[in-house]
Design goal:
The complex is a heterotrimer of chains A (about 270), B (about 270) and C (about 260).
Chain A (H helix, E strand, L loop, with lengths): L1 H40 L11 H39 L6 H39 L2 H7 L4 H40 L3 H4 L7 H27 L5 H33 L5
Helix pairs in contact in A: 1-5, 1-7, 2-3, 2-5, 3-5, 3-7, 3-8, 5-7, 7-8
Chain B lengths: L2 E12 L2 E12 L3 E5 L6 H9 L6 E6 L2 E2 L5 H8 L2 E4 L11 H12 L4 H14 L15 H13 L5 E5 L7 H18 L2 E5 L3 H7 L2 E6 L2 E7 L9 H8 L27
Parallel strand pairs in B: 3-8, 3-9, 6-7, 7-8
Antiparallel strand pairs in B: 1-2, 1-4, 4-5, 9-10
Helix pairs in contact in B: 3-4, 3-5, 4-5
Chain C lengths: L1 H33 L7 H12 L3 H25 L6 H39 L2 H7 L4 H39 L4 H11 L2 H27 L4 H31 L1
Helix pairs in contact in C: 1-6, 2-6, 3-4, 3-6, 4-6, 4-7, 4-8, 4-9, 6-8, 8-9
Classes of the chains: A mainly alpha (about 270), B alpha/beta (about 270), C mainly alpha (about 260).
């Protein structure tokens, strides 16, 4: 009997802890938006943030993820096309639709989501590591002592930079995936490039999905990672934990958001994707 | 005369560990209070409570006439800019140079031009003996230098209340004396109130007016600093003199949330 | 002027990547050598198996559930429109077993276990515990790294098997809840169309991914430098390296194995 009790207590504790964490996470998100609005209204003179911080973040998040995104998405594009062609070969032998369907899936799902997962790993870890090590060396407390809000100073620039850069990198990554897919189809299955690069199936709603997802992921990653960073405690071990939690949290957030957005889109489009 | 710090009946625990139990403390305006105690007795936590960086589970904290408990971050900003704090582990911003670190509180407070700030920062760096190091990054500094930058940053804005958490830990005796002379000169000049935490009781006693002894989460003694070695309490006497025999519980140190792990026996 | 700096950066980047790859290869060699003869600390092995396996099941299961559902969301409507509901399970299941399952679970594993492992090892390095072990004439590679590598590889495979099943369940749930394709149709289309080879194809990838994640994670853990900031950077590097390796390995295995 007590065995069950301990198990139930553990689950109950976990649920409570998760709910509390979810609430705090939501507060961080609200705080970030509030921070952005505050920045625009210039009530605090906008002197909270150091000059050029936004540019620095754009560079750190964007430029430094460029090669990573190109390489990873290029390879996955090749693999996906390969697998798809392989199976189509088994079933119908008709490759004429591969390119257009690949493009549709790419735009409405895989492009943003795979870019999102990769960025969740790279950017999420980076942000959490930076903010986490600041937290354990008490720099966050020192910021607060000068009347600075950590969310305004640290998270807002990263948030803006991440949303912008995620969109741009997703576009770039998707283009790379598409090109890589075309090359694979051409060289491994003899699919004519003009057959493959067929945009006729792309609808406006696919592009809308693309942008919505990219923006959603770009917003979720810095909030989750910043949240994990701010909660780091202890010393170097705490930083490690924070970074780990950030990677899992942002990756998971990307998957969940993908699912929700796709499901909603399915409903809105009456099952016609 | 309003007290600069008034703490009444404060309790604080982390999980199962009770760090502060029914602590009450007052620091008068323009006075200097020293805080001593064994490692992990809650000294740093008390400093953070004064700044509002942490909130007590129970009790009230009033600083510069304003209650702190329950206020949101945004509301505390103005009050915090009137407080200067030296963190135990320096907490210097590792993405800024020495000069930018010291200028930071002034820039955030606003109201001074860039030239005025530069002049003030240069003066502070000269006072702590770091005149040539403006453009160094914190990674290039030794521990003692970092501490001095921390002191410069804590005193740059002429705060009404200054808190020093271990101003002399890890410094040699001569430098320690220089630092305390500097802190004393600053306090005389600005008339600020001072709360200083230190494990070096001898040097501290020459700097502060009174000393409070925090032991196992409670203030067990408070008296004039000059006579601390002959205090009535045997507990305090043993701690200050570094004797091994006596009522002081020298059990295993709790996990460090506070204080360098120098045992009371070693005073150097 | 811009061109010069960019080239210098690229060159520098290439050099450091080469350095890391070299270092990982060296560590791999040390691990392999420590396995012959296999004298592994049993207690460390069991401890790591438990830590990396049992505690990852929830997150992997959840991820797999969503991933399976996602695949169904993507392929289901298409299949339905063609009226080929018998193929519904094939479309989602095939992608899951061969690609999405192994990759997503590996990525999650890299985040949950790989990053955690790097954090632990780098904290131990930074606090000089590894030096302490060497002073006691214990080889850190044999004692710490090898059990973790084995545990990670074994556990990733186990988790992928579980994850694959959960993902298929997720696909089924989405199929019946949102697309009106009932569960038995799904089950039959899985059974009819998914071959054991598809499953093995995915599992062999998991073995490779596990090795990549393990080596990357341990390497960056033991070569860390610089305190709390260094730990953060090490975890960051480990996760990124693992992600790139996963993608590269996926590519090679897909092409080699067909």
């Amino acid at each position: 009997m007590s065995y069950f009790r301990t198990r139930i207590e553990a689950i109950g504790g976990a649920v409570l802890g998760t709910s509390r964490a979810a609430l705090e996470l939501w507060l961080v998100y609200v705080g970030t938006i509030a921070g952005i609005v505050r920045g625009f209204s210039r009530r605090h003179g906008g002197r909270g943030r150091p000059k050029g911080e936004l540019v620095r973040q754009l560079h750190a998040i964007g430029n430094r993820s460029l090669v990573f995104i190109i390489v990873t998405l290029g390879f996955i594009g090749m693999v996906m096309t390969y697998q798809a062609c392989l199976q189509l070969g088994r079933v119908t032998g008709d490759y004429s639709q591969v390119g257009s369907q690949f493009l549709r899936l790419l735009i409405s799902d895989f492009g943003p989501t795979l870019s999102g997962m990769m960025l969740a790993t790279r950017v999420g870890a980076g942000i959490a590591a930076e903010i986490g090590s600041m937290k354990v060396t008490e720099q966050i407390d020192a910021l607060r002592m000068s009347g600075v809000l950590p969310i305004d100073y640290l998270i807002v620039p990263r948030f803006i930079a991440c949303v912008v850069m995620t969109l741009m990198l997703t576009v770039l990554g998707s283009m790379v995936m598409y090109a890589a897919g075309g090359l694979t189809a051409q060289y491994s299955f003899g699919v004519n490039p003009s057959t493959f690069y067929d945009l006729s199936f792309v609808r406006g709603r696919h592009l809308v999905l693309f942008v919505v997802k990219a923006l959603a992921y770009g917003a979720a990653i810095p909030v989750v990672a910043g949240f994990c960073g701010l909660r780091a405690r202890g010393s170097s071990e705490g930083v490690g934990w924070a970074t780990t939690a950030a990677v899992i949290g942002s990756s998971f957030a990307v998957i969940v958001l993908d699912f929700i957005i796709s499901a909603v889109a399915l409903f809105l489009a009456d099952g016609d994707l | 005369m309003t007290a600069t710090i008034r703490i009444v009946g404060v309790h604080k625990r982390y999980g199962a560990r009770r760090v502060l139990e029914d602590v009450s403390l007052e620091v008068g305006q323009g006075k200097r209070l020293g805080l001593i105690g064994p490692a992990a007795s809650g000294k740093s936590v008390l400093c953070k409570l004064v700044c509002g960086l942490e909130a007590p589970d129970r009790g009230t904290v009033e600083v510069l006439g304003q209650p702190i408990v329950g206020k949101r971050e945004v509301e505390l900003g103005d009050l915090r800019r009137r407080i200067g704090m030296l963190f135990q582990n320096y907490a210097l911003f590792d993405f800024l140079t020495v000069e930018q670190n010291v200028a930071f509180p002034l820039e955030q407070r606003g109201g001074m031009t860039a030239e005025e700030i530069a002049v003030r920062v240069a003066e502070r760096l000269r006072a702590v003996g770091l005149a040539g190091s403006e453009h160094k990054l914190t990674g290039e500094l030794s521990g003692g230098m970092k501490k001095r930058v921390g002191i410069a940053r804590a005193t740059v804005a002429d705060a009404e209340l200054v808190i020093y958490d271990e101003p002399s830990a890890g410094l040699d005796p001569v430098t320690t004396q220089k630092i305390y002379d500097l802190l004393a000169a600053d306090q005389v000049r600005t008339g600020a109130s001072v709360l200083a935490v230190s494990s070096d009781v001898v040097a501290l006693a020459k700097f502060v007016d009174e000393i409070a002894f925090l032991y196992r989460g409670q203030i067990v003694y408070r008296g004039p600093a000059a006579t601390i070695a002959d205090a009535e309490s045997a507990l305090v006497r043993q701690f200050v003199r570094g004797e091994l025999e006596g009522p002081l519980d020298q059990g295993p140190a709790k996990t460090a949330d506070d204080g360098p792990t120098r045992s009371p026996e070693s005073r150097r | 002027m811009i061109g010069e700096k960019t080239i210098a950066n690229i060159g520098g980047g290439a050099v450091s990547i080469a350095q890391h790859v070299g270092g990982i290869v060296v560590l791999t060699g040390q691990v392999l050598r420590a396995l012959i003869p296999p004298r592994i600390d049993g207690r460390e092995l069991v401890k790591n198996l438990h830590k990396m396996g049992n505690r990852s099941v929830p997150i992997v299961a959840l991820t797999a559930l969503f991933a399976g559902g996602l695949m169904m969301l993507q392929s289901g409507p298409f299949v339905k429109k063609l009226g080929a509901t018998g193929l519904a399970g094939w479309a989602a299941g095939y992608a899951v077993l061969r690609e999405i399952g192994p990759i997503l679970i590996a990525l999650m594993f890299s985040g949950r276990v790989g990053a955690n492992n790097t954090a632990e090892l780098s904290t131990m390095t930074v606090t000089e515990q590894l030096d302490g072990l060497r002073a006691l004439a214990i080889d850190p590679v044999k004692f710490l790294v090898v059990p973790r590598v084995i545990a990670m590889m074994v556990m990733l495979v186990a988790l992928t098997v579980i994850g694959d099943l959960v993902a298929l369940v997720g696909a089924t749930v989405v199929g019946s809840a949102l697309l009106e394709i009932d569960a038995s149709t799904m089950y039959h289309s899985f059974a009819d169309n998914l071959k054991p080879y598809d499953f093995l194809h995915g599992i062999s990838k998991s073995v490779a991914f596990g090795a990549a994640i393990a080596m990357s994670s341990c390497y960056f853990g033991v070569t860390v430098r610089g305190g709390a900031v260094g730990v953060g950077r090490a975890v960051n590097a480990a996760v990124v390296a693992a992600a790139v390796s996963i993608m590269l390995l996926d590519f090679f295995i897909t092409y080699l194995a067909g």
